[in-house]
Amino acid sequence: MTTAASTTVFEEIESAVRTYSRSFPAVFATAKNESLYTADGSRYIDFLSGAGSLNYGHNPEPVKGALLDYLAQDGLMHGLDFSTSAKAEFLTAFRDLILKPRGLSYRVQFTSPSGTNAVEAALKLARLVTGRTNVVAFSGGFHGVSTGSLAATGSGYYRQGLENTLPQTTHIPYPDSPLGKFDSIDLLKMLLEDPSSGVELPAAVLLETVQGEGGVYLAPIPFLQDLREVCDQYGILLIVDDIQAGCGRTGSFFSFERAGIVPDLVTLSKSIGGYGLPMALLLIKPELDIWRPGQHNGTFRGNQLAFVAATAALRHYWSDGAFAEQVVKKGALVQECLERRVESRFGAEVRGRGLMYGIDLSPVPGLEASKVSRLCFERGLIVETCGRDGEVLKLLPPLTISQVTLSTGLDIIISAITDLATDAECGSTTS
Ligand code: PLP
Question: Which of 317, 346, 376 is the C-terminal boundary of a domain?
Fold first, then answer.
């Protein structure tokens, strides 16, 4: 095998911390739209989309041209937080195509380009604004792995060994989880009303409206509306982490639009940069924008190529409602297919919205999501697992995926589940 196609160098010198390369052991070289190709020419359909960073697929033509033009004209590449033409165009497009049509007037803060840094900024700002330290987050929530965001992340896997270093956060159950439905609002109100609850009045409540890493659990609309009300009543800031569920993933640009609520702070990353280029944003209600210049900074807050790609993506996909409608339509197809061919046949639970779906295999005896994922990979599909014990298969196809490829990907999943379920029934140990 040539060096370009061999995994030896990764095993030899890349840190043990690597993950996706273990689940999907191939050397990828090129990619287009919904497919990746290995150095030795094999094709894989992508139902992972860079963990939600490639909502417009790999190397989308409407964005590529803008990037090539920018490079050809020697556009500024590194800009700290200078005012640049590329940033001006992005801010204008974001204001005119995303914020204004939704009646939103957020200020835009560019943080360091990982999602976790946008969460750090949100938590820091909420604490500065309110003068309080505690934050309420939800069990099963994932917000990143730097210290501040990790404190809000529920996962025992990521917290293990660091628990004592994680600052003040109170976790309460999400309204849906492997343990069933829960009245989170009732508990939150009790904790806030009881002066002896032992829980300090929080600066903020932080949540994903659809928990991604936690297992694709959806917050019900009445819960989101009640949460907004409780936050208003107690002067608590509501932070929606839209890093995974935002940028159209759930069928609207922001995941919270379905509840008609306006969070005080919103984090965005992953697909906002377009083309997989790193960018992260904190959206701030204007009256909360009390930062002193440079108080939260970073050398790489000005990825000009990400601005160019994001502007092209916003203009191409979000100038009207047609793209979101397509996402909703494709999502309905996925839901119908999975309910009919997976839920009713095997007893798995299907949850999701837009093009963010989870197939929870925990109710199916003998069927492990990791084995399904592995078999899918052998058959040419990349699909990852999530959930407390990796028991959920998570489907994040590019929002631009063609219906034909979407169906092919679903067929691969269903045939893998069928084959492994048959093996499990027959007591086979070969898988
Ligand atoms: N918040 C959510 C909801 C996420 O899904 C993620 C990453 O998966 C993060 C925050 C952290 O983003 P990053 O990995 O870019 O730091």
Answer: 317
Same domain for 136 and 279, yes or no, is yes
User: For ligand 1, which residues put their CB under 6 angstroms from it?
Assistant: 51, 114-116, 119, 142-144, 208, 212-213, 241, 243-244, 269
Report if residue 65 sits inside a domain: no
Domain end residue (candidates: 287, 317, 347): 317
Question: Which residue's alpha carbon is at the smallest distance from atom 5 of ligand 1?
Answer: 244
- Quote the domain boundaries for residue 37: 4-60+321-430
Contacts of 20 (CB under 8 A, 6+ apart): 48, 384
- Residues (pLDDT < 70) of the chain are 1-3, 428-431
Residue 269 Cα to ligand 1 middle (Å): 8
- Among 55, 116, 239, residue to substitute to test ligand 1 (most atoms within 8 Å of Cβ): 116
Q: Which residue has the tokens 């200020």?
A: 107
Alpha helices in 19-84 (DSSP H): 20-23, 49-52, 61-72
- The pTM is what? 0.97
List pLDDT tens digits, range 50-84: 999 999 999 999 999 999 999 999 999 999 999 99
- Mutation test of ligand 1: which of 49, 243, 281, 394 has the most ligand atoms closer than 8 Å to its C-beta? 243
Q: What angle do CA 114, 32, 306 make, to 5 degrees?
A: 30
